[in-house]
Amino acid sequence: MSAGLAACGTDDAQDGAGSWEFPDGRGGTVRTGGMPRRVVAFTGSAGALADYGVRERIVGIFGEAHAPDLLGDLDAASVTVVGDAWGEFDIEKYATLEPDLLVTDSYVPGRLWYVPDDNLGKIESANPNVVAMEVSGRSLVEILARYRALAGALGADTAAPAVVAAGQRFGAASQAVRDAVASRPGLRVLAASASPELFYVSDPRSSADLRYFAELGVDFVVPDRVDAGGYFRSLSWETADRYPADLILLDDRSSGLQPTALADRPVWRSLPAVTAGQVAPWSPIFRFSHAATAPLLERLAATIRDSRKVL
């Protein structure tokens, strides 16, 4: 049995008849009596599926529901928002949509992104068919392949010209990063997030995008230990200079402090990358499609080309 669709013939599959299955990232397999017709998904998951050709089947979204980078060209007005902020998930509205599949990412084993833990039982009672896309410790290429396979299993033409073109752009952007790295030997890069109390140094081995950047040759600073969860090491601002770097990729989410808000912090101003003006945006939450990640790679390549070694 393939990882995607198992149906009793193509025509039956398109009509929703026959059997359908897809592996859940938590270890099981979702099996239904026919191809799911009504999908509710995390905004980034919905945007990724739309990039691969799934549109009409998406009836609801949740989590950062109005973030354009996550939506892509999916029209938010064409779907129902069942939750927008962290912890928000309207179970009654979700049940009213009569979904037969829920899709979201999973950054922590066993937990679903933007799905409240305390309401998971009720959500699964309304619809037990949940596909989690495991992110932690996984290759970016593997995650993209999973989303493309799920789109195909939901009836999309994943060999459509737009999908193929996006894959080609991704390949070219990956090569651009390799070339940029080769042109800046020894450049040390640190990925970080900032809050009023702490400076978070990311472990590139845990994040799918950073891990892929490293595979392309980016020389990341790796913290000598990480906090529980494995994604980063949190430092007090007094010790934020523990890991010097030539270039800082700073989390650009609105939940984190940006360079203008950090300008009055002496330790921040003293960092070599900051002194050199080599701080660039990093988007750690994005939709997992070739169309969405190619621009991130292109931005990284340009950032590296515009940087120089200062350590």
Can you walk me through this structure?
By secondary structure, this protein is α/β, with parallel strands linked by helices. It has helices at 10-14, 43-51, 68-71, 91-96, 120-126, 140-153, 161-183, 208-215, 259-262, 266-270, 272-275, 290-305, and strands at residues 20-23, 29-32, 39-42, 58-62, 80-83, 101-106, 130-134, 188-194, 198-202, 219-220, 232-236, 247-251, 279-282. The strands form three sheets. Strands 8, 9, 10, 11, 12 and 13 form a six-stranded mixed sheet that branches. Strand 3 (39-42), helix 2 and strand 4 (58-62) form a beta-alpha-beta unit. The longest helix has 23 residues, at 161-183. It is globular and about 60 Å long. The chain starts with 9 loop residues before the first helix and ends in a 6-residue tail after the last helix.
Key descriptive features of the protein:
disordered N terminus; five-stranded parallel beta sheet; 311 residues; globular; single chain; alpha/beta
Q: What is the helix content?
A: 25-40%
- Category by helix and strand content: alpha/beta
Number of helices: 12
* Portion in beta strands: 15-25%
